[in-house]
């Protein structure tokens, strides 16, 4: 279906009768068709929930504009206000990665917050500036996120033009899909020599410091608008679930976010677990039970 936001955005819908859950995908080259996103939606549908999974191109491309929370708010209201999607004008919300944090930013608007019964944030950030710095410096973060930021900022800042933008987007796509045979080297051979040279230097890492300084200079002033829990307006229950070894956003971010939300009067529960983002876990039984309790609490509120 198409949601009436920004001229229309695509959304997949799983029908159910138990209540509506809006599931927002994170930063993924596959957007709302990412396997993790689809598995979450299918599991909720099996439990009887109606599930709405919209495509969020700006999130997938990591276009960090100050207007992004407002657009997420428009999506929340569009789903909650559609009688075919939400029977009682209110929904539960699951946000992955930056989408969860952006949704919390959007919910600082009272009209948006009133439409949300409960929130489950998966791997959210609390301080976007700290995450931005970690991604740009390569501290544990996958190169995909860094390349997306380059593609968003450097073509204009360094006058690489549309050609440079396409090449950097291709580099990010190669990384996001983990291609064994990346397409960028072939594209660079056909590119304008000066642009190809600059892109090789950025992607190869020899100009990482210069690129990081440029991205920070362009995006740094936007971080305040992208920081959740700036105002004490959220009253719905919020569950934060975060992988202890998350390669993109450190689990300390969810803990800090939880403390800030709690200080603003929001009912928050947080669960940091090695079950998420780590293939092998010792003593998995107790962890599964603990994560199960956190998810069950959210589902009861949904």
- Low-confidence spans: 278-283
- As laid out across the biggest beta sheet, the strand order is 1-2-4-3-5-6-7-8
The CATH superfamily of the largest domain bears the name Alpha/Beta hydrolase fold, catalytic domain
Mean pLDDT: 90
Using the coordinates shown, work out and report the CATH topology of the largest domain.
Answer: Rossmann fold
Percentage of residues in strands? 5-15%
Tally of individual domains: 2
Q: Outline the biggest β-sheet.
A: 8 strands, mixed
Helical residues, percent: 40-55%
Order of helices and strands: EEEHEHHEHHEHHHHHHEHEH
What is the secondary structure topology, with strand pairs?
Blueprint: E1 2-3, E2 9-14, E3 20-24, H1 35-46, E4 50-54, H2 57-60, H3 68-80, E5 91-96, H4 98-106, H5 110-113, E6 116-122, H6 128-137, H7 143-157, H8 161-177, H9 184-189, H10 193-204, H11 208-219, E7 238-243, H12 252-263, E8 268-273, H13 284-301
Parallel strand pairs: 3-4, 3-5, 5-6, 6-7, 7-8
Antiparallel strand pairs: 1-2, 2-4
Entry summary:
The chain is an alpha/beta fold and 302 residues long.
Kindly describe this structure.
- The protein has 302 residues and is of the alpha/beta class.
- The protein folds into two domains: 2-127 and 227-301, 3-Layer(aba) Sandwich (Rossmann fold), CATH 3.40.50.1820; 133-222, no CATH class.
- It has 13 helices and eight strands.
- It has helices at residues 35-46, 57-60, 68-80, 98-106, 110-113, 128-137, 143-157, 161-177, 184-189, 193-204, 208-219, 252-263, 284-301; strands at 2-3, 9-14, 20-24, 50-54, 91-96, 116-122, 238-243, 268-273.
- The chain has an eight-stranded mixed beta sheet, with helices on both faces.
- Strand 7 (238-243), helix 12 (252-263) and strand 8 form a beta-alpha-beta unit.
- The longest helix has 18 residues, at 284-301.
- Mean pLDDT is 90; it is low at 278-283.
């Amino acid at each position: 279906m198409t949601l009436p936001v920004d001229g229309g955005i695509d959304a997949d819908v799983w029908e159910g009768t138990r209540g509506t859950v809006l599931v927002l995908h994170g930063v993924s080259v596959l957007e709302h068709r990412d396997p993790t996103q689809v598995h979450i939606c299918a599991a909720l549908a099996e439990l009887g929930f109606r599930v709405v999974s919209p495509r969020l191109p700006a999130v997938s491309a990591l276009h960090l504009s100050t207007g992004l929370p407002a657009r997420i708010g428009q999506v929340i209201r569009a789903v909650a206000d559609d009688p075919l999607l939400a029977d009682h004008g209110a929904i539960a919300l699951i946000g992955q990665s930056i989408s969860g944090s952006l949704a919390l930013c959007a919910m600082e608007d009272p009209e948006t917050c009133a439409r949300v019964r409960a929130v489950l944030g998966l791997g959210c950030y609390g301080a976007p500036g700290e995450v931005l710095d970690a991604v740009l410096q390569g501290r544990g973060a996958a190169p995909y996120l860094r390349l997306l930021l380059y593609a968003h900022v450097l073509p204009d800042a360094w006058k690489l033009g549309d050609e440079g933008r396409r090449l950097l987007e291709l580099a990010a796509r190669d990384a996001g899909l983990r291609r064994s045979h990346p397409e960028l080297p072939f594209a660079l051979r056909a590119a304008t020599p000066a642009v190809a040279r600059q892109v090789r230097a950025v992607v190869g890492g020899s100009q990482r410091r210069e690129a990081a300084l440029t991205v920070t200079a362009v995006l740094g002033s936007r971080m305040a608008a992208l920081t959740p829990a700036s105002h004490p307006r959220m009253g719905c229950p919020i569950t934060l679930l975060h992988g202890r070894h998350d390669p993109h956003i450190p689990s300390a971010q969810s803990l800090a976010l939880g403390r800030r939300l709690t200080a603003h009067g929001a009912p928050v529960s947080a669960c940091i677990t090695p079950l998420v983002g780590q293939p092998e876990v010792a003593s998995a039984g107790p962890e599964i039970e603990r994560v199960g309790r956190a998810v069950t609490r959210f589902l009861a509120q949904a």
